Amino acid sequence: MQTVTIRIGEQDLVLETGRMAKQANGAIFATYAGSAVLATATCSDEPREGLDFVPLSVEYNEKYYAAGKIPGGFLKREGRPKDKEVLVCRLIDRPMRPLFSKKFMRELQIVPTTVSADRVNPPDVVAMVAASTAVHISDIPFDGPVGAVRVCSVQGELIINPTFDQIAESELEIIVAGTKDGITMVEGGAREVGEELMLAAIDKAREVILDICRAQDELRDLIGKEKLPLVADPPPLAIADDIRAFAKPLYEEACFVKEKMARQKAVKAVKEKSLEHFAEALGEELHLQQAKSLLGDIQQEVVRHSILEKKYRNDGRSLEDIRPITCETNILPRTHGSALFTRGETQALAVITLGTMYDEQIMDDIDGDRRENFMLHYNFPPFSVGETGRLGTGRREIGHGHLAHRALEGVLPKKEAFPYTLRLVSEILESNGSSSMATVCAGSLAMMSAGVPIKKPVAGIAMGLVTDGDSFAVLSDILGDEDHLGDMDFKVTGTEEGITAFQMDIKIKNVTPEIMKAALDQARRGRMHILEKMAEEINSPQDELSEHAPRIITFKVDPDEIGLLIGSGGKTVKAISEKFGVQVNFEDSGSVTIYSKDKAAADQAKAAFEQLLVEPEIGVVYPGIVKRITDFGAFIEFLPSREGLCHISKMSAQRINSVEDVLSMGQEVDVKIVEIDKMGRVNLSLIYEGMSEGSSSHGSDRGPRPSGNRGGRDGGSRGGNRDRDRR
Fold this sequence. Notes:
Layout: E1 2-8, E2 11-17, E3 26-32, E4 35-43, E5 56-58, E6 61-62, H1 83-96, E7 108-116, H2 124-136, E8 147-154, E9 157-160, H3 164-169, E10 172-178, E11 183-193, H4 195-223, H5 240-254, H6 260-277, H7 279-282, H8 285-310, E12 325-329, E13 337-343, E14 346-355, E15 361-363, E16 370-372, E17 374-379, H9 395-409, E18 421-430, H10 435-450, E19 459-467, E20 472-476, H11 480-485, E21 488-494, E22 499-506, H12 513-537, E23 551-556, H13 562-566, H14 571-580, E24 583-586, E25 591-596, H15 599-612, E26 620-629, E27 633-639, E28 642-647, E29 668-676, E30 682-686, E31 696-697, H16 719-726
Parallel strand pairs: 5-7, 6-7, 17-18, 26-31, 28-30
Antiparallel strand pairs: 1-2, 2-3, 3-4, 4-7, 8-9, 8-10, 10-11, 11-22, 12-13, 13-14, 14-18, 15-16, 19-20, 19-21, 21-22, 23-25, 24-25, 26-27, 26-29, 27-28, 29-30
Helix pairs in contact: 1-2, 1-9, 2-4, 5-6, 5-8, 6-8, 9-10, 14-15
């Protein structure tokens, strides 16, 4: 067993091997304070012929026992990966995948498992380092190691590997991964920060990443295995030069057809024509595969050369040009808010739905139970790229949706000021580059169209990179082909004031600070242009919510009075809820929230609750309802859940023999409070002709109404009831 220890932030990261999972190609048990991750790396026994990609799968998982919890639900065991686990899988995969050789041609699987969680220190960055170390000390060829840290800016101070509490307070949170040569991945969110702060955070992370990489090298020197061989390259094609001479002029024309589908058709035709032309000379299947790979290389060379040397892109744009943009809002008549955002051949339909606190997403994981009142769901159906396929939610949908969620959540109003649950759904209808950024733009437009009081509109843009090592070109608003054939995909979202989210993936070993700065500056100019186009359609939230959205009223009462509003066994709140068709929520702080589809019903329910809090006053007249009749009088409800006794002697100026001669059950009458004794008992008097003047009125001043039920059956009238409702 061997260990290495490195100080990161306020805690020691300990990397241990040789005690657990010894049959894997590589295994690391990593601990950081109270969090621990066991990461394993394995590969298949034999290479698979014909692979032209890295067959890597990353399966990060969190065990509930890590936090001393038993899983919720009917089945008390871990099930399909949660969104959070999928996102960590992507964090591990993206910086490591470019460092595996396609020539290895074996199935690769990395399984980091969180086995201890202290709920103070996030285990995701621990898993990233553990995964890299497991591969680095194994016999799997790997051009690593990779280091990873989280950096937060809290009150102007940059903190490495902050706690959950520090993350919650931060204005900037990023995860940075890199090798000894440079940065390979950045992902995070912010609250409208400037580009300078982001660059400073990356520089801070770079120093720690170098130390982490050195620690992994130290462990490999102690116990690392000899690397397995790569598959030898086949002999070069004898006719490679002939294929290049034939195909290159055709690609130089086909790669620059303006429209996406026509360009794909033209490129496909060049490939088919070239293979057909050299079919006899190629002969063997191996040679055919080599020819296909060569044609792909030629296409890439043509596109990259045009960008670097001519500053000319596939669709004829210059490096900084943004494709034409159109924005439309409220295109769906029955939804709470909608927007259609089209940029070139990328189109997103965003739909916002407003709900109540009962619609919040309940999150159950090892970080602790919590509720989420903003959800963003991203859908990428196959028809958006002109293909057939399975509809569903995969890692792509979860990852892109999370990025857009981060981009928009920073401009949402506080829950106290806008107590709605928000669900934003993005339907990608067309895709040719950066549909996640189209989601951000469409989502911002949809929320403003629905009247959600966001602080500022948010826009997003995807940047690309082409470099030959000596020179580079940064591309604004990249196409799908430029993403596939280029060296970087850098997405930046923000308002006119600053950045709200970003994500950088590269296919080369690293990017220089010069490239990062140029990309951020160019992204800001592009973002400003898109925001201007969005402002032409709508530049601030609508004053009124959609007529189809639920209405929410919030008011405060003394916390000691909450019990009065709820009533014995919830009787009072249930009665009011059923009467007005509303939902009611009480908080210990004294906050009362009423949810209703109709504003008038919500106002009436609020008035009913306020009536419960009214203190009865002697001499004031109240409308009442007869609840009980006895030989000596009647008990009359004069305020919600408040009754008083009207003695038989207080019912008329003349003597009466029986209470039933004047009153009946359910009858509506006007009463005056004549006495409140020391025990709080209320004595009432009916209002009748000849009664002394001078009483103040809390309602009608008319006498007893005809007997009968409240609806006026058996000859009763409802006119007084309507007056009472208005009061």
